Amino acid sequence: MGFSKELLKGKSIVVTGAGKGIGRACALMAAECGAHVIAVARTKSDLLSLKDDSSGDIEIWCEDVTQDAFLQRLKNLGQLHGLINNVGTNRVAKMTEQLDDDLDAVVDLNIKSLYRCAKAALAPMQKSGGSIVNMSSQMGFVGSPGRTLYCASKHGVEGLSKAMAVELATENIRVNTVAPTFVLTPMTEPMFANPEFKKFVFDMIPMQKLATTEDVANASIFLLSDLSAMVTGTSIKVDGGWTAR
Ligand SMILES: NC(=O)c1ccc[n+]([C@@H]2O[C@H](COP(=O)([O-])OP(=O)(O)OC[C@H]3O[C@@H](n4cnc5c(N)ncnc54)[C@H](OP(=O)(O)O)[C@@H]3O)[C@@H](O)[C@H]2O)c1
């Protein structure tokens, strides 16, 4: 089961945070569907192993998405058909324990940096039109304990994605989000070491299972592809029903 190997043929796609977790699965699937994939992360060994794991067309960029050098490189691309704007972070703590540094770290990466990456992608995308997938979360729709900063940032991602979709619609640039529930990745593995937290999560998900990185990649690839040609300004929740309660 899977998409056609031709689904993204001829398309050039940038995936940020492609070394590990969700971004890695998205990069692998986009390459499997025939895209030329530019995989971005800071750790070279992750990117080299990503390339080894794929028989597709993956170009690796060892870059920090928060730096001007990366944004300029993105802007200078001759053409671009898709961006999975996936890099994000979390600082889990009660609001009373959150420091200003935590607030800055989450807002800087999850909103400001995501916004700047999307903005830099517009120049090469304007030539042919394209699709931007901003990686959100179920926490872009609900609140949850210890997650004031993360929820605020992901609600922000939802808002900016809708506004971008409206602003860019006539330029044939679509903008959507994918909003996963919990997925086991290097970001969340430490959280699941706590049995109480694990029980809380499984109790909250009607389907009583975590999402896989491939579940999230499936939704992202659909949004990048022409199968979703009339879909913009919305979100695909890959959350097993968490937000439906
Ligand atoms: N995991 C979940 O349960 C879950 C659920 C909902 C939404 N999400 C969202 O999905 C996205 C990915 O999450 P994940 O769990 O897959 O994360 P992850 O396991 O922490 O992987 C993040 C990837 O991004 C790269 N990265 C981090 N900062 C970077 C930077 N400044 N420049 C370039 N690359 C950078 C990391 O590599 P380097 O450190 O080597 O750069 C790594 O390859 C995030 O936006 C997250 O909020 C995750």
Description:
The protein is an alpha/beta fold and 245 residues long. It has one domain (12-181, 212-232): NAD(P)-binding Rossmann-like Domain (Rossmann fold, 3-Layer(aba) Sandwich), CATH 3.40.50.720. The chain has seven helices and seven strands, in the order E-H-E-H-E-H-E-H-E-H-E-H-H-E. Strands 3-2-1-4-5-6-7 form a seven-stranded parallel beta sheet, with helices on both faces. The longest helix has 27 residues, at 100-126. The radius of gyration is 17 Å and the shape is globular. The protein binds NADP nicotinamide-adenine-dinucleotide phosphate. The site of NADP nicotinamide-adenine-dinucleotide phosphate has 27 residues, from helix 1 and strand 2. NADP nicotinamide-adenine-dinucleotide phosphate (NAP) binds next to helix 1 and strand 2.
